[in-house]
Amino acid sequence: MTDPGRPAQHPGEQVPASPSGAVPDNTSGAVPVNASGAVPVNASGAVPVDASGAVPVDASSATAAGEPVAPEQAVQATSASIKRMQRFTAANMVRSLLPLIVICLILVVFPTLRQNASDPVREVDPTSSERATAELAGYPLLVPRGLPDAWRPTSVRTNAGSASAGDPVTLQIGWFTPEEEYASYVVSDDPRDPALDDVLAGATDAGTAEIDGETWQRRTTDRGETALTRADEGATLLVTGSAGDEELTALAASLEPYAP
Fold this sequence. Notes:
Elements: H1 71-87, H2 90-114, H3 127-136, E1 142-144, E2 152-158, E3 170-176, E4 182-188, H4 194-200, E5 204-211, E6 214-220, E7 226-232, E8 235-241, H5 245-253, E9 255-257
Antiparallel strand pairs: 1-9, 2-3, 3-4, 4-8, 5-6, 6-7, 7-8
């Protein structure tokens, strides 16, 4: 009895069988037929098969699931891929980066705009550095107190943040003075600290000065500036800068024991 699901075999036609005796099938599970509904044969009258023994399938007429792909669908898929590639243009990249660029400009420009163009001096707060030095130093810390507002602190440095207990500790503070000069105060128990050594190494003696009941050694630095220095309970104090003697004397006289 003829299988209604398989095309009729014409007399004289031979369909090669696989080792199991079945007609080779393709991956879709069905033998391809031609327009008349018959299995296509070659010149010898046999159904052509590939090297694996299966009936070949036209790859352009089927998908991986055995469903045909319409030409219109293939064109649409190609067009979508092209559109995705066109979106990755230089202009689109610039537009995507524009918000980040604007944020960076705001962070850089805004602080600059807040500064007074006629006053380029940037003040700092030495409070935290003074506290850190006082907590770690092995000597009683003296710091300037009571200076007029016209004395504007512009720099501060301490190594207390990286020092361990028992290590030498240095504090250095700089001011923009009322006479628009620079004055610096240094206190350290390390005589080789650059803040001290760079000033005093080549300085020459220039007598002494009595300031607020304390005797200071007066020296002249290699740059011709005045340096006032004295020892206090294991620490060396230094007042120097381009400021005149009057302002340097006022700075030395303002020193008091640190109090939180």
